[in-house]
Amino acid sequence: DINNYEIIDYTGIFGSSVLFLILPALMAWQNRYAEDDPRPLTVRPMVPLGKVVLGSLYKAAGTLILEQGLEKLGVFEFVKDHLNF
Q1: Confidence at residue 1, expressed as pLDDT on a 0 to 100 scale
Q2: Are 7 and 43 in contact (CB under 8 A)?
Q3: pLDDT for position 85
Q4: Are 55 and 30 within 8 A, CB to CB?
Q5: Using CA atoms, how far apart are residues 25 and 53, in angstroms rounded to an integer?
Q6: For residues 1 and 13, which has the higher predicted lDDT (pLDDT)?
Q7: What pLDDT sits at residue 57?
Q8: Burial, 49: exposed, middle or buried (Cβ in 10 Å; 0-12, 13-18, 19+)?
Q9: Contact partners, residue 65, CB within 8 Å, separation at least 6
Q10: Angle at 4 between CA 3 and CA 6, to 5 degrees
C-alpha cells in the first residue's frame, strides 16, 4: 500500500535539503574555485572566509540529511528502546 503523504514527506525533506543547502554551496564553490575556468571573479564574494564557510555549509547539510534519514528509518527509536534512555 502506497502512502502518498509519506512520499511527499520524504521528497520534501531530502529535496529541500539538497535544493536549499547543497546546491547553492556547490554553485558558489564551482564559480569561485573551479580549476577548468581560469576567469577571475567579476564581483567580490559576499561571504568572507570562502572555503571555510562553504565547507561548513556542506557539513551542516550532510549532518541534517543524515539525521533526517536516520529518524525516518527509525534508528533513533531503536536505539532509545534498546539502550533504555
Answers
A1: 66
A2: no
A3: 58
A4: no
A5: 9
A6: 13
A7: 86
A8: exposed
A9: 14, 17, 18
A10: 70
The grid cell for 63 is 549532518
The answer for residues whose C-beta is within 8 angstroms of residue 33's C-beta and 6 or more apart is 50, 51
What is the per-residue pLDDT across 3-58, written as a single tens digit (0 to 9) for each? 888 778 777 777 888 888 888 888 888 888 877 766 777 777 776 777 888 888 88
Cell of 75: 534508528
DSSP state of 66: H
Phi then psi dihedrals of residue 18, to 5 deg: -70, -45
Q: Residue 70, Cβ neighbours under 10 Å: how many?
A: 13
